[in-house]
Amino acid sequence: MPAPRTFYLVRQVSNLIRSIIERGLAEFDITPAQYTLMNWLIARDAVTSAMLARGLHVSPQTMNTLISALQNRGLVTRGKDMKNKRIRLVSLTDEGRAAVVACNRVVDRLENEFFAQLGATDLVSFRYTLEGLMTRSRRPRPGL
Fold this sequence. Notes:
By secondary structure, the protein is mainly alpha-helical.
C-alpha cells in the first residue's frame, strides 16, 4: 500500500485540530469560525464585512451569518463609516474582546498540548515551514 499523500495527511491534521478547538470553545458557545473572525478583528480597527470575508476566505453570505450571530450575542457591533454612511463597519465590543482573551487562553493550552511532542526547536521549524508554504501559495504563479 502506498504512503498517504501529504495533502491527505495535512487535511487529516487540520480536521483533528478543528475538532479539538471546537470542543475547547464549546464552553463559550463560540464556533471555530466565529473565533477566527473575532481574532481577526482584535488586531484591527473596524472593518467592512466584505474585507472580513476576503481576509478569512469565506463568502459574503457566510460572513454575514457569522457577524449576525456574534452581534446577537453582543460580541460585535456594526456601525456606520463616518466617511460613507452606506458602509457598515464591524468591530468587537468590550465583551467580545474579553471573550477573545478567554478563548485564547483555552486555545493556547490546547495548542501547547497538541504540539508538545515536537519540542520547542521542532515547533519553530514546523511553524517556519507552514508560514513559508502559506507565503508561497499566495504568490501569483505563471500559467495558473
